[in-house]
Amino acid sequence: MRWYLPPVRLTDRQLNRASLARQLLLERERLPVVDAVRRVLALQAQEPASPYLALWNRVRDFDPVELDDAFRTFAVVKATLVRLTLHAVAAEDRAPFHAAMRPTLRAAGLYDERFRTTGLTPTDADALVLSLVAFAHRPRDRVAIEAMLAEHLGAPPEPGLWRGLRLVAPLVHAPNAGPWAFGATPSYVAAPASPSPTDEARARTELIRRYLAAFGPATPRDFARYARLRQTEVRPAFEALSDVLVVRPGPGGATLYDVPDAPLPDGDAPAPPRLLPMWDSVLLAYADRGRVLPEPYRARVIRRNGDVLPTVLVDGYVAGVWRPVDGGVEVTAFHALDDDAWDGVEREARVLRSLLAERDPQAYGRFGHWWAKGLPSAQVRVLSGA
Question: Does pTM surpass 0.70?
Answer without folding.
Answer: yes
